[in-house]
Amino acid sequence: MGAVSRSMAAAAGLALLSLAACNRAAPPAPKTYPVTIANMAYGPTPTGLKAGDAIEWINDDIFQHTVTAQDGSFDVDLPPKAHARTVLKTPGVVSFYCKYHPGMTGKLVVAG
Amino acid sequence: MIRRTFLAAAALALALPAAALAQGAKPNDAQIAHIAYTAGNIDIAAGKQALKKSHNKQVLEFAKEMVRDHTAVNDKALALVKKLGVTPQDNPTSQSLKAAADAKLKDLAKLSGKAFDKAYANNEVAYHKTVNGALQSTLIPDAQNPELKSLLQTGLKLFTEHQHHAEMLAAGLK
Q1: In this complex, is the C-beta atom of B128 within 8 Å of any C-beta atom belonging to chain A?
Q2: Per the CB < 8 Å rule, is A63 touching B69?
Q3: Nearest CB to A40: which of B75, B76, B157?
Q4: Which of A21, A95, B84, B90 to pair with A3, CA 20 to 30 A apart?
């Protein structure tokens, strides 16, 4: 009995220590990455995206554009010189395009 | 009806290169600015006509986009010529474009409903193809000022996108 309690306590202690170690090693907070639209094209999308990160879309073009997810997860309308933020809630690959200029396309790769 | 539309589209498609050839000499920057501005204005006028006549959601959205995008380019073009101190110069290519477009507007004015929508969409495909060809073969290579050349290159990307969008619209109306 006593031995079991001791090992349980030790296991719990070890678990707490591991948790604390994990917490220290984990990234501090989700990041926001800018992606600029100019001259009828999306700028390069960032690598190393994780669920919870966000994209700040900046329309530096003279035309109105959208950033529309193929899977319907987001649809951002951006008048010229406007900006808007999209939080990437779920991991996966999301292709997006502009509803007005469907030749404009891009892809986000979001890790878990 | 369909035959007339095809003929008009073909005539328009021929109008620009023919005029450009007839002109002989290469256009200067003041003429190129005028041609580009005229080409934009023509599509704005066509878009405004469609906004008045059509009841089709896709056609209306497309027409709004044409008016919005071409107004944006033309505003930019006006600001650029002002900055450069260039006065856009009328020329046979601009005149030919304008004359063909005026005739097309009159033709389209006689149509309504689905017939109008189809004719508008088909003409937008033909028109954007024509202007893309002129931008690639003449206007961009001949432009001397780098800022004008860059604006024309943006215009080419825009017209190419519009052409694809118009093709999708036309295919959806069949």
Answers
A1: no
A2: yes
A3: B157
A4: A21
CB-based burial, B130-139: b 16+ in 10 Å, e otherwise: bbbbbbeebb
Q: Is residue A17 pLDDT above 50, yes or no?
A: no
Interface contact flag, A104 B161, Cβ < 8 Å: yes
Tell me the chain B residues in contact with residue A40 when contact means C-beta distances shorter than 8 Å.
Answer: 154, 157-158, 161
- Count each helix (H run) and each strand (E run) in chain B, helices first: 7, 0
Other Cβ atoms less than 10 A from the Cβ of B33: the count is 26
Q: Does residue A1 have a pLDDT over 50?
A: no
Any idea how long chain B is? 174
Options 1.20.1260.10, 1.10.443.10, 3.30.450.20, 3.40.720.10; CATH for B28-172 is 1.20.1260.10
Same-domain status, A39 and A59:
yes
In this prediction, residues B93-121 reach a mean pLDDT of: 96
Kindly report the pTM of this predicted structure.
0.79
Q: Which two tokens stand for residue B151?
A: 């604006």
Q: Is B8 on the interface with A (CB under 8 A)?
A: no
